[in-house]
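debug: dumping io for the single-chain case to check the tokenizer round-trip. Nothing else runs in this session.
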Amino acid sequence: MASQELLIAFNQEFTHTFGGATLWRGLDGSYLAQNGQTVRDRINLLYTDTPFSLEENADELRAYMAKLRQAVLEAIKEETVLVVALPVYHAE
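debug: decoded output
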């Protein structure tokens, strides 16, 4: 599976699971490769909000994120994949 197809699949997954998703394509980034070289990289950022508390559902969320990360590693050839869940509080 190509990385663009994977982004589309995850975008659909997050939309149906959490009610929506946002994808930022083509961000500039860099990383230190395993061979010690600095590599410039184009980064796509996909994020979603959850309708539930991260703290109260930590075990389920951790398992879900591990499955997402494994799916990415199996689908595309990347040295590393970052899957993160962070609490962000919105003021109304």
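debug: round-trip ok. Residues 3-75 form one domain.
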